[in-house]
């Protein structure tokens, strides 16, 4: 039986608020890349807390990556709604990517401090893929622009990191330089995010019933 943990919009908002000062202090991102769909809402909330007086909002770009397949509704995990809970896939599929044929878009990425945002780091497969592929593409873009620009620096923010052995890995320098930040570290539970709920009142009621942490 999969243990579920319900997280409310209010909690997500406060996790972003709490993380923002550290992100500003340690990363000072100039751009966010949200991994869809779970990274969209946290990235948008973070943007409000990262806004500096006199500076424009930090732009958010989106990529779509998919690793999990929906379980059949009769799966023993107890899921009874298609899409209610998901199971590990084996490979990451790009459903949306940056347009690196656009000169403006390439210039936006090269030499920048970029914060990659997702909701949860489970097996780390998705984050490994995102970081590796973005690093590769940005280096290609830098070369296309003459190879003179500074290197792009990536950092990662997730709401939840599951404390478990990971299949994927992140660059050593990213971990060493504290460019990986999880607002909370949790056990190997299934986190139910509010944007996945079809009945938000029921979702909030489930969250309310959980023992407070
Ligand atoms: P990973 O590649 O780290 O195994 O998984 C990343 C993606 O799997 C997340 O972006 C998310 O879409 C999905 N995922 C993994 N664990 C959970 C979870 O506990 N709850 C939800 N809602 N999605 C999860």
From TrEMBL:
GO molecular function list: guanine phosphoribosyltransferase activity; hypoxanthine phosphoribosyltransferase activity; xanthine phosphoribosyltransferase activity
Keyword field contains Hydrolase: no
Superkingdom, natural source: Eukaryota
Entry keyword Glycosyltransferase: yes
Keyword annotations from UniProtKB, A to Z: Glycosyltransferase, Transferase
GO CC, one annotated term: cytoplasm
GO biological process assignments: GMP salvage; hypoxanthine metabolic process; IMP salvage; XMP salvage
Cross-referenced SUPFAM superfamilies: PRTase-like
Protein's UniProt name: PRTase-like protein
